[in-house]
Amino acid sequence: MSVPAFAQDAADADNDEIVVTAQKREQNLQDVPVAITAIGTEKLDQLQVNEFADVVKFLPSVTIQQGGPGFAQVYFRGVASGENANHSASLPTVGTYLDEMPITTIQGALDIHAYDLARVEALAGPQGTLYGASSMAGTLKLVTNAPDTSGFYGNAGVEINNVAHGDFGSVFEGFINAPLSDRAALRLVGWYRDDGGYIDNIPGSRTYATSGITQNNAALVEKNYNDAETYGARLALGIELNDSWTIKPTLMGQIQNTEGSYARERSGQNSGNYQTVQYNPESSRDKWMQAAMTIEGKLGSWDMTLTGGHLRRKTNTESDYSDYGYFYDALSGYGAYFYDNAGDYVSANQYIQGIDRYRKSFGEFRISSPQDASLRFIGGLFWQRQSHNIEQNYIIDDIADSITVPGTDSNIWLTKQQRTDRDYAAFGEASFDVTDKLTLTGGARLYKYNNSLVGFFGYSDGYSGDKVDPMGVPGVIVKDGTGVAGCGILSGPTRPAVVDGSPCTNVDKSTKDSGVTFKSNATYKINEDALVYATWSRGFRPGGINRRGTLPPYGADELDNYELGWKTNFGAFRFNGAVFQEDWNNIQLSFLGANGLTEIRNAGIARIRGVEMDVGYRQGGFTLNAGFSYLDAKIRRDFCEYADPASPYDCTIPIPDSLTDRDLLPQANSTLASSGTRLPVTPKFKANAVARYEFPVGSWNGHFQLAANHTGSRRSDLRDFQYGIKGKLQSYTTVDLSFGVKNDQWNIEAFTTNLFNEVGVVNTGVSCREDICGDPGGGTALGGTFYDTLIKPRIIGLKFSRDF
After folding, report:
1. 262 near 65, Cβ under 8 Å?
2. pLDDT of 1
3. In the chain, fewer beta carbons within 10 Å around the N or the C end?
4. Which of 666, 668, 671, 632 is nearest to 648 (CA)?
């Protein structure tokens, strides 16, 4: 009977083997019949990985889309339809795990500072059997280094850096591993990171058409506007109760404060790469804490794991929303609706103050049979509940009491809602060695979800009643069902507030469903150094609520994966790869509808064909690792503005009157994207290569490393019209260099990332509907205002660390 081990070595120095837990048990990476990329402790440090975006650079099958630190969406293998990560929209397609706990929230995964991680595992393709909801396209696992009873040791390090066009930054990190006895140990980890800003908020002014009020941003003009600080800690205990049972509690938390905007602005006032013109304060404070516990042991010859955890996250945000007021006023005269108690016009300038509170609890029980038997089984039960208390204040200063949302100081709009997503599952996988070379595996996951949304969104009663069409259509009256006026539409009298801080309730919906996903795999081990496998697997993403009352809930979407892969070692060479086809059905397509509200409907079918490869070579002090992915990802049916349930891909079916923006002005349906259109956000081609040479320098060991990354061009939006406004996301290539020396205690390294200061755009967008804030013409000379989130400019830094 083996003693459970706390410490998990990421790589063996002699053969570069990596141990992973992709199939919920420890295995050599080369023995796992799954398309998986793993980066161990040392390599994370060598690659200058500090945050989520740094990791994704070296994962060929993964793409990131972000608006700044703490707000990132991750995509595997092109499974992206342009989701806007709105708080009441679809769950992510990728699940993110911290050790055993899922930590994915609606607005992205936690942006954990990457220090003292044993490894990062990227599992491409549906992981629905073992990982379940929101692992439809893949799973990212962040595995921390566990407490170790072998001895007292630690590390402390400091980094000083400078970002091109910007400020200096610094990083301070350290950990202590301390045995408490021969059967217990603790590990304490801490970090502080200060990221220098590099985007300037330059002077600007604008005049609102209706009021004639001119606004400027003189009070906010600042160089290096977007600085950030991140600090946190982790405490982990490891206790061996006896030779068979261990208990591992952990407590981890982080605070991330940012100022300014992380996007350049493209507009008539500005065209600089690292400049923006913002008229209201922009900031975020992302604070989270996670507590988890894992109990492992033996039930006879079977392994048992019981794990659970709780996560609390709170984000406070400030955002400039003046573009919305400016463009709607200039194009449609919306400024006429904004006045004070005396009836005089006020500035249509808007800004947003948000508070999002997340709570997430989960539990999992699983058992597995002896892994040396010819017939093996792993299975268990899973439960998860995540809630999101949403508060978004859209503020126009000094507006009249009659158009102010009740209970607020000067809100023109309020979102105050409680979203709750519940997931339950029973899962199992069985593997049988038909021969000593051929293994067959089958798995299934029975799932059930129950999701709800309740609360308030919209305007005051004085603003959201009947009013003349602001688009200027004679005789047309807009019946705005949002806000206080909508609280009694479905139920007669105005419904009282359910969520604290809301004036009343105008959304109270839930949706639930159940089903099963399957997986089958055949693995043939040619010899000890080569295997091939074939997999069919299915992933799913739960359905949810459309908060607009006229729209039904949206259902789950599914991804079927057909994959052939191989893993081989030929002496000093490693060559792994996979070819695959993924069919994405009932795609949850999201876009902005009337009033800028996100709408989601199941109205898409896509097919993704691709190949992934990764090669490695190691000889003496020289190592070379390279990987790439090629994706052909397209929709296979027309995407219609209105999807009739009976014929969702027939764009000639007219939109029902009940769903049009103007009740008295029916709209014709239209084709938003034609069959054959590329899926957005992810490139056709992505590649990276890392070459490293280690050599003696006196009594020290020296190294030189070169890393290159290429991200191909991407479509910015699935919809043709909006894509024509926002444009293509161009390809970019970055190069990183490092040189250093180390001995048994000290490690000194100089490095630069993005050596040639490449300007790469990872996301682009506007503050409201593209045809308004992007202003493609419309008879005006305004031009649009676009925001491009950029990769970081060149960083030059120096690192010192000491082991003890």
Report:
1. no
2. 31
3. N
4. 671
